[in-house]
Design brief:
Helix content is 4%, strand content 53%. It has 4 domains: 8-28 and 35-88 and 168-194; 98-159; 217-299, no CATH class; 304-490, no CATH class. The termini are far apart. It is elongated and about 90 Å long. A hairpin with a 3-residue loop joins strand 2 and strand 3 (35-46). It is mainly beta. The strands form 4 sheets. Strands 14, 15, 20, 21, 22, 23, 24, 25, 26, 27, 28, 29 and 30 form a 13-stranded mixed beta sheet that branches. Strands 2, 3, 5, 13, 16, 17, 18 and 19 form an 8-stranded mixed beta sheet that branches. The protein has a 5-stranded antiparallel beta sheet with strand order 10-9-8-7-11. The chain has helices at 92-97, 249-256, 325-330; strands at 15-17, 27-31, 35-46, 50-55, 68-71, 78-86, 103-111, 117-128, 143-146, 149-151, 157-159, 172-179, 183-194, 196-206, 212-223, 229-238, 269-274, 277-282, 286-288, 292-312, 341-349, 363-370, 376-384, 392-415, 420-431, 438-445, 452-457, 462-465, 468-475, 479-490.
C-alpha cells in the first residue's frame, strides 16, 4: 500500500474510543520475568483516508513501541501513520498544575464558635501546584496565595471546572490510521507490557516411613498491570527468554521493583515445547483482575519414587574468604577448619515411569512428611531450575540433626623447591539414629592444585570432576565410620 505525503489540514479525521472489545478475543502469554504479551480483539470501522483512533484499554505498563496491529482475516492492510502515547491520567495534582498563575475556588469546612460546621468557598491563586511528574518524588509542596499572603498547603478541597477535551482518565494511545479497504472489520492488537508475572510452587508430601512421595505443582499468576482481563486465554512461557530491562521510567521501576473445578477429566494446564522454551496453557478462559493473584494446579503426581541423600562436605571453605592461587600452596592451614553439619538432599527422577515426565518450570519446592499421628510436618524447602523431562531433581532441604561429621588433617608435608605437597585427612561421620542406618556421601574437594594423585585411602573413591572425589560411608545406627586418604600435589 502506497502513501503520499499530506498536510493535516487536508485530512478528514474520525475520532472514537475503542474500549469495548469482546472478552473472548483476549489472550495473554505471561513470562516468568515480569512481562507479558497481550493480544486483544479490536473492532475497527474505518473511513477512507486517515482515521483518528483513540485507544484507552491498554495496561498501565505498556511498551508503546512494541505495538502490532493487524487485520484478523488478513483481508486488508492497516498502517499506523503516527502514534502518540499519553500516560498522564487526570489527578488532583495534575489539574492543579494547569491552573498555575490562575485563580481557583476551594471548598473549606469551618467550625464556628457554637460548634456548627459550615462550608465556605474561598478563591485563591495557584502560585505553584506541587505537581512534578519528572522528579523521582513526583510531588513538592504547593504554594497558594490568599489575600496577598502565601501558604504551603491547600486551603481546602479544590473545585475544578469541567474536564477539557485534552484530559484522559487512563493511559491512552492516539493513532492516525490508514487502510487500503475502508469499512468495518475485526483486528487484533498485540503489545508487550510489564506488571504481569508467574512462578511455580511445588508441595511434596512423604509418608511417615519411606520416600515414595506425592507431588502437587501450582502456578501463581500475579497481575499488577493496571488492567482487568476478562475471560482471557492464558499461556505461561517457561525458560530463560532474553529481555532488555528498561533502566528508567514508570515501567522500568515496575520491572525492577483460581480455577479449582475439574472438567471432563481434562488437566487444568497442558504443556508443549515452543522454540527453545516451554508453554503451559490454561485449558479454560479465566478472569484475571488487576492487583489479583491467581493460583492454578498444573501437576499432581502420586507414587513418585524419591531418594534421601546425606552429604558431608567437611571443609569449611566459607571461612577463608578470598585466597590468591599461590596462597593455596603456601598457606599450610588453608582448608583445615571443619564443618560438622551433614546436608540432607532429596532427589527424584522426572520420568514417565516415575509418574512424572512433564517439564518442570523453575520454582520453589516445599517438603512435608507425615508424623506417626498422620499430621503433616514441614521439613524444608528449596528452589529448582527449569528441569526437562528425564532429568533428575536434587535439592538441599536442611542439615541432619542426628548425623554429625568431623574432619581433621593428620599429616602435611611440602617441598617448595621440588614443587610437591602431601596432605592426609581423617574424616569421621557418626550416626546417632537408634534404628536407622545411613549412607553418607563424603565429598572432598582437592583444592590445593590441579595436578593431584590419591596415594593412600581407606576405601576406593569416586571421581566426580577434575578436583572432586567422593566416598560412600555406610554407618550403622549408633555407629561411626572413618575415612582417610592422602593426596599428592605437584606443580
Amino acid at each position: 500500500m502506497k502513501h503520499t505525503f499530506r498536510t493535516l489540514l487536508g485530512i478528514a479525521l474520525l475520532t472514537f474510543a475503542t474500549t469495548g472489545v469482546n472478552a473472548d478475543d483476549t489472550a495473554l502469554t505471561i513470562y516468568n520475568s515480569d512481562f507479558a504479551v497481550v493480544r486483544q480483539g479490536l473492532p475497527l470501522d474505518l473511513r477512507p483516508g486517515v482515521n483518528h483512533i483513540t485507544f484507552a484499554d491498554a495496561t498501565a505498563h505498556i511498551e508503546p513501541d512494541s505495538i502490532i496491529l493487524r487485520d484478523l482475516g488478513g483481508m486488508r492492510q492497516l498502517q499506523i501513520l503516527e502514534q502518540n502515547y499519553r500516560n498522564d491520567p487526570v489527578s488532583q495534582a495534575m489539574l492543579l498544575s494547569r491552573f498555575e498563575g490562575k485563580m481557583l475556588d476551594f471548598q473549606v469546612e469551618r467550625t464556628d464558635a457554637q460548634g456548627n460546621r459550615k462550608t465556605e468557598i474561598i478563591p485563591a491563586k495557584i502560585i505553584r501546584s506541587g505537581y512534578s511528574p519528572h522528579n523521582p518524588g513526583g510531588y513538592t509542596e504547593p504554594i497558594i496565595e490568599i489575600d496577598g499572603k502565601l501558604m504551603f498547603r491547600l486551603p481546602g478541597e479544590p473545585i475544578f471546572p469541567a474536564l477539557g477535551d485534552g484530559a484522559i482518565l487512563k493511559p491512552t494511545l492516539d493513532w492516525l490510521l490508514e487502510t487500503d479497504k475502508p469499512g468495518a472489520g475485526r483486528s487484533e492488537l498485540s503489545y508487550v507490557t510489564g506488571g504481569l508475572n508467574w512462578h511455580a510452587d511445588y508441595n511434596i508430601v512423604a509418608p511417615a516411613k519411606g520416600d515414595v512421595i506425592d507431588l502437587v505443582g501450582w502456578v501463581t499468576i500475579n497481575n499488577q498491570a493496571g488492567k482487568d482481563f476478562d475471560d482471557a486465554r492464558i499461556k505461561l512461557m517457561a525458560g530463560d527468554v532474553n529481555k532488555i530491562v528498561p533502566q528508567s521510567g514508570v515501567y522500568g521501576r515496575a520491572y525492577k521493583a483460581a480455577m479449582a473445578a475439574d472438567e471432563a477429566m481434562a488437566p487444568p494446564v497442558t504443556e508443549k515445547a515452543f522454540d527453545e522454551f516451554h508453554l503451559y496453557s490454561l485449558e479454560r478462559p479465566t478472569t484475571l483482575r488487576d492487583r489479583e493473584t491467581k493460583q492454578v494446579e498444573f501437576i499432581a503426581a502420586t507414587g513418585v519414587k524419591s531418594q534421601r541423600i546425606y552429604v558431608y562436605n567437611g571443609a569449611a571453605m566459607d571461612r577463608y574468604g578470598y585466597y590468591a592461587p599461590d596462597q593455596l600452596v603456601e598457606d599450610p592451614s588453608y582448608g583445615t577448619q571443619s564443618n560438622p553439619k551433614i546436608w540432607v538432599m532429596q532427589e527424584f527422577k522426572n520420568t514417565k515411569s516415575n509418574n512424572l515426565g512433564m517439564p518442570l518450570p523453575r520454582g520453589r519446592l516445599r517438603f512435608y512428611r507425615r508424623d506417626d499421628d498422620g499430621q503433616l510436618q514441614f521439613t524444608g524447602e528449596n528452589t529448582i531450575d527449569h528441569t526437562p523431562s528425564d532429568e533428575t531433581v536434587r535439592v538441599y532441604t536442611g542439615n541432619s540433626f542426628d548425623l554429625v561429621g568431623e574432619r581433621r588433617r593428620t599429616s602435611f608435608r611440602v617441598d617448595t623447591n621440588h614443587k610437591w605437597m602431601d596432605e592426609t585427612f581423617e574424616i569421621k561421620v557418626r550416626n546417632h539414629k537408634k534404628d536407622s542406618p545411613a549412607e553418607i556421601r563424603v565429598v572432598e574437594r582437592l583444592y590445593r592444585w590441579s595436578n593431584w594423585q590419591i596415594t593412600d585411602e581407606s576405601q576406593k573413591h569416586r571421581k566426580q570432576d577434575a578436583q572432586t572425589i567422593e566416598y560412600r560411608a555406610q554407618v550403622a545406627p549408633q555407629g561411626e565410620q572413618v575415612v582417610t586418604y592422602t593426596v599428592h600435589y605437584s606443580w
